[in-house]
Amino acid sequence: MPIRIDADARRRHIVDAALRLIVGGGSSAATFRKVAAEAQLNIGSVRHYFADHETLVIAVATEVGDRMAGRLTRHPTAPAGDRHAAKRHLLRVLEELVPLDDERQREAIILMEIIAASRLEPAFEPVVRRMAADLRQVLAGALAATGTPAPEHQAVHLAALISGLSLDAVTPHGSVDRATIRAVLEQHVATL
């Protein structure tokens, strides 16, 4: 009797293996051969689910985005007119988007790798643009609830702050620790 394979579970297993490799060695480390070894599968199994390296890396980026979105939905929006609650909500949203624990640290590394790779790899550009637009939309909505003027403009500012803090947290560029990230976000939200 043939063994039945859960295609979705197998695909997720391959994406998780690629994610670990990208965290450890950048997007170029996620070769089909290395991913197959990491997932303890044969290379044909990886090729069955992903046409090429680019589609695999895009699947990893999409998975990271989905994980972040899932966490964001756990934070209900503040009641209308409650500015203090809206600021607390905004802070919770921001904390989900920066590397404040090991999972978010890995996600930030993945995003940085894919964003950097999109400069030279046109296949990554649409997913990177979509993630940036989604981020700005989430931030603008949370900022609007606080009564912040020009929330779309402020969302760009806040997205840059998140990117900078994340870059400094995952690279030797700034070596910013988690407590400092949290303090910077709290201070920024307090000024709104």
Automatic annotation (TrEMBL):
GO molecular function term, any single one: transcription cis-regulatory region binding
Q: Which residues form the HTH tetR-type domain?
A: 8-68
Q: Which residues form a coiled coil?
A: none
Q: Which PROSITE patterns match?
A: HTH_TETR_2 (PS50977)
According to the UniProt record, which residues make up the DNA-binding region? 31-50
| One Pfam family hit | TetR_N
Query: Which keywords describe this protein according to UniProt?
Result: DNA-binding, Repressor, Transcription, Transcription regulation
Annotated protein name in UniProt:
TetR family transcriptional regulator
